Amino acid sequence: MIVEFTEPARKQYFELLEQYDCVEFGDQFIDVVADRIENIKQFPLGWPKVYRTIRKCNLGKFPYALVYQIVEGHAWILAISHHKRRPVWWKKRIIKSKKL
User: Fold this and answer.
1) What is the CATH number of domain 2-84?
2) Of 17, 44, 50, 73, which residue is 20 to 30 A from 95 by alpha carbon distance?
């Protein structure tokens, strides 16, 4: 399975990475995200559905989750969602057509 970030999720990833770099957790954040992406590649259906075809993969000790959708053989990361802040704000990023 190919796992890719949508452009808004990629931007969000780098913003979070910058925040965690400031408090010296940047490398750990990178490692956890990379590990979860590998998990999604190997077991794309292994994470719980949170809304229709949307799944969520928690980032361990970080209070975030990768929110992703499987479309045409790709797992598209739609957002990196905080566990307690606006829990379903990412719904506007759901892929509805075959085009990204």
Assistant:
1) 3.30.2310.20
2) 17
Rounded distance between C-alpha atoms, residue 29 and residue 46, angstroms: 21
> What pLDDT sits at residue 88?
62
97 pLDDT higher than 80: no
For the chain, what is the largest distance between any 2 Cα atoms, rounded to a whole number of angstroms? 40
Give Cα separations from 35 to 62, 68, 71, 99 (angstroms): 13, 15, 21, 27
pTM across the whole model: 0.85
Average pLDDT over residues 47-66: 93
Q: Which residues pair with 29 in a beta bridge?
A: none
